[in-house]
Design brief:
There is one protein chain. The mean pLDDT is 90. Strands 28, 31, 32, 33, 34, 35, 36 and 37 form an eight-stranded mixed sheet that branches. The protein folds into six domains: 61 residues, Phenylalanyl-tRNA Synthetase, Chain B, domain 1, CATH 3.30.56; 113 residues, Nucleic acid-binding proteins (OB fold (Dihydrolipoamide Acetyltransferase, E2P)); 190 residues, 3-Layer(bba) Sandwich (Phenylalanyl-tRNA Synthetase, Chain B, domain 3), CATH 3.50.40; 68 residues, Phenylalanyl-tRNA Synthetase, Chain B, domain 1 (2-Layer Sandwich), CATH 3.30.56.10; 210 residues, 2-Layer Sandwich (BirA Bifunctional Protein, domain 2), CATH 3.30.930.10; 88 residues, Ferrodoxin-fold anticodon-binding domain (Alpha-Beta Plaits, 2-Layer Sandwich). With 809 residues, it is an alpha+beta fold. It has 21 helices and 41 strands. Its cofactor is Mg(2+).
């Protein structure tokens, strides 16, 4: 943002130097990137008065002008078509350094007297381009009639430009008045906001309608008749040029001028080209409009359009149409001032590839109260500059006027958040200087932000304002003393921290995926879904949350599960490595009826590829579902959760699905990914995944460890091989072994599962590694065998097992 200091001084007084002002603004958050000094190279250039203009005797297109510059008179030869007696011009004498108007690189040259067609030209009346003020070289720059003859041009047009890099949180300051308010608060003065002296009354002079409040919070339209189109005054032209805008004509220039001054974009329509009522509506499918840059553009869906009864006439808040552009023939205009829906303007501008000064303001949100002030200010200037005559009152659609709310602000929040004591009266002074209304109620301040400060809504926002105006450089710079405090009371924080550490130690790599995924990927996941599965790993598209303004089709929906992202990771990484063991612990997004989406955390794990063998003497093997099952079982045991893992009861299609539960509550599922889905994702390996409900895990987790006595007596180890029906879960067998083996049984590990030609069809062989140990004595082999026989008898009766080596070979 370019801020001419001369314009700024019109609204706020300050005595500090330009450099000090730039530093003060920067410290307060409005970073001044550069100070540009306009006119410092204007030596030997003065304000001159054109006394007489006559035709060149030897050239049809040249003229000879006689100019008084206060220190004498000179004659010049010029081809400027707009030079006339009585004008004040920028007169460059011999030795002046000017910009070559015919150079694209803005090269400079020193002026010398020269004869042009036999007439000596002693000086030059300069154009904007020759002075470096703009790009116009069609004629000379005509100065303000009040400019004193003989004054140095530096003193008349010289200026300082503050180039301020405004961040989005300072969008309210994106105007000369906005910066003036900040300067006033920082320097202890008061900003002077323009108060238009104009009355707009009577019947509404224009017909219009607005489709819905979702398009515009406020929409104003004023008709003005008998406009005289022409160049703007020197003051307006100069200020536009200093701010980097090209003057066009007085009507367009005034709308730009008010936008720069107050921050409110305006748009003029040629009223005689508008047919019927003006409408603010959503775009029609494939609706097209030729914009003022002579480009035919198709409106993206849901674009806010301005239209009449026959045609669209503008992309609202972005760019007007060529069909209602103000031209030299315009005599009557409709002046628009509005507060459009910020997200819809942002989206339309991006899709159209158009980003204008207006759209950059609208997309950050505008204050509806500003629309009326800006309209009145523009009407006032149009009356002064163009002789405009307002026709009645403006059309003003403002269905829900903005309501401001007081914020209860305890003064101690300043100390708590900034670490310093700022006296209460100083806090009040700072807030008042920012145009906040303050009411004192004991130690509490009731603070009412101005309407243009929608960014201030909670006490912390007020502390930020107090801190930056007080001066962040005033905060003491010191190292912390004593023990650094740390919050040890957040149990869930430590559970999550320890979980991540354990998973990393187990050989899993953490991934962090986008929250947004594509409809294509969601649709592919349908094969993972089984009715009643918790947590569900797939939902139909109409049950998935779709974002309003997706950046691309690949980032269109909020993920309902972590597994789609992990499978994409597996697909991407198996092309380069043999083993992919990954996990993600993050939020998913669940649609809730009429409420904000639920955002529970999930833990998802995916395993694929090779695994390291148990012994270094064995070859590498493929990852199996038992690797994932064992990892999850050990992980949950580490968190103090003993779980059951049983085959799913979700129906006949839910093969290779294990339900993980604790105390009857399902934590999640472990399963093998369907091969058809793997082919769709270009994955050639078996992939095993799990998704667990982290919210339940952290409730059941126990990080505290009680001391468990370790027996000093030796362990007796035995193998137990049993043959059971293939339909009986191994977990049922394991449960019986533990129930009958305690307290001497201290370890029961399922080492092998076999199904094949060596055993009867419909059965499976389970090999268990058992360990027996006593607390108070050395356990004999006979005692261990006695316990083992008890286990065998229970297995025969409860799961109809046959003991290999005893009942069968």
């Amino acid at each position: 943002m370019r801020v001419p200091v001369s314009w700024l001084r019109e609204y706020v007084e300050f005595s500090c130097s330009i450099e000090e002002l730039a530093h003060t603004l920067t410290i307060a958050g409005l970073e001044v990137e550069n100070i540009e000094r306009i006119g410092q190279e204007w030596e030997n250039i003065y304000v001159g008065l054109v006394l007489q203009v006559e035709k060149h005797p030897n050239a049809d297109r040249l003229q000879v002008a006689h100019i008084d510059y206060g220190h004498g008179q000179v004659s010049i030869v010029t081809g400027a078509p707009n030079i006339a007696p009585g004008q004040k011009v920028a007169l460059a004498l011999a030795g002046a350094t000017l910009v070559d108007p015919y150079s694209d690189q803005h090269k400079t040259f020193k002026l010398k007297p020269s004869k042009i067609r036999g007439i000596l030209s002693e000086a030059m009346a300069c154009s904007e381009k020759e002075l470096g003020l703009g790009e116009d070289h069609t004629g000379i720059l005509v100065l303000d009639p009040e400019a004193p003859v003989g004054a140095k041009l530096q003193d008349v047009l010289g200026d300082h430009i503050l180039d301020i890099a405004l961040t989005p949180n300072f969008s309210y300051a994106n105007s000369i008045v906005g910066i003036a308010r900040e300067v006033a608060a920082l320097t202890g003065t008061k900003a002077k906001v323009p108060v238009p002296n104009v009355e707009l009354s009577g019947d509404v002079g224009v017909d219009a309608w607005v489709e819905s409040e979702d398009l515009a919070a406020r929409y104003m339209l004023q008709r003005l008749d008998n406009i005289r189109i022409g160049p703007s005054s020197a003051k307006i032209r100069r200020r536009l040029l200093l701010c980097g805008m090209r003057p066009v004509n007085n009507v367009v220039d005034i709308t730009n001028y008010v936008m720069l001054e107050l921050g409110q974009p305006l748009h003029p329509f040629d009223a005689d080209k508008v047919r019927g009522k003006v409408a603010v509506r959503s775009s029609y499918p494939e609706e097209q409009l030729e914009t003022i840059d002579h480009q035919l553009r198709t409106a993206p869906p849901d674009t806010i359009m301005i239209a009449d009864d026959e045609k669209p006439i503008a992309f609202a808040g972005i760019m007007g149409g060529l069909n209602t552009e103000v031209t030299d023939d315009t005599r009557n205009i409709l002046l628009e001032s509005a507060t459009f829906n910020a997200p819809r303007i942002r989206r339309a501008a991006r899709l159209l590839g158009l980003r204008s000064e207006a759209s950059s303001r609208f997309e950050k949100g505008m204050d509806p109260e500003l629309a009326g002030l800006a309209l009145a200010r523009a009407v006032e200037l149009l009356q002064q500059e163009c002789g405009a005559q307002p026709k009645g009152a403006p059309f003003d659609w403002y269905p829900n006027p903005k309501k401001r709310a007081y914020i209860d602000f305890p003064v101690y929040e300043v100390k708590r958040l900034l670490g310093i004591d700022i006296p209460k009266d100083q806090v009040e002074r700072i807030l008042t200087s920012l145009e906040f209304e303050v009411q004192e109620e004991g130690d509490l301040l009731k603070v009412l932000p101005p309407s243009y400060r929608s960014d201030v809504s909670i006490p912390a926002d007020i502390v930020e304002e107090v801190g930056r105006i007080w001066g962040y450089e005033e905060l003491p710079s010191q190292l912390p003393g004593g023990t650094i405090p740390f919050n040890l009371t957040d149990r869930f924080f430590w559970i999550e921290k320890k979980a991540r550490e354990w998973l990393a130690a187990a050989g899993l790599q953490e991934v962090i995926n986008y929250d947004l995924i594509s409809a294509r990927l969601i649709s592919k996941m349908a094969s993972l879904y089984h009715e009643g599965m918790h947590p569900p790993v797939w939902r139909p598209l109409d049950e998935v949350i779709k974002v309003i303004n997706p950046t691309s089709p690949e980032r269109e929906y909020l993920r309902p599960s972590l597994i789609p992202g992990l499978l994409q990771n597996v697909s991407d990484n198996l092309r380069f490595v043999d083993k992919v063991w990954i996990y993600e612990l993050d939020r998913v997004f669940i649609k809730a009826n009429g409420e904000r989406p639920q955002e529970p955390k999930r833990l998802a794990i995916a395993m694929a590829g090779t695994r390291w063998p148990i012994s270094p003497h064995l070859p590498q093997a493929k990852t199996t579902i038992f690797d994932l099952k064992g990892t999850i079982q050990a992980f949950l045991h580490y968190l103090g959760i003993e779980v059951e893992m049983l085959p799913s009861q979700l129906g006949p299609d839910a093969v290779n699905v294990l339900q993980v539960s604790v105390g009857g509550n399902v934590l999640g599922n472990i399963f093998q990914v369907d091969p058809t889905l793997l082919r769709d994702l270009d994955i050639d390996e078996d992939v095993f995944v799990a998704e667990l409900d982290w919210e339940q895990i952290k409730q059941h987790a126990r990080l505290d460890r009680n001391y468990v006595h370790v027996s000093r007596y030796p362990i007796v180890r035995q193998d137990l091989a049993v043959l059971v029906s293939a339909s009986i879960p191994a977990g049922n067998v394991t449960r019986v072994i533990w129930e009958q083996g305690r307290p001497l049984l201290v370890q029961c590990e399922l080492a092998e599962v076999y199904q094949g030609d060596q055993i009867p069809e419909g059965t499976k062989s389970l090999l268990y590694k058992l360990a027996f140990q006593a607390e108070d004595r050395t356990l004999t082999e006979e005692e261990a065998t006695k316990v083992r026989q008890k286990i065998e008898n229970a297995l025969r009766s409860e799961v109809d097992a046959k003991i290999r080596g005893v009942d069968i070979e």
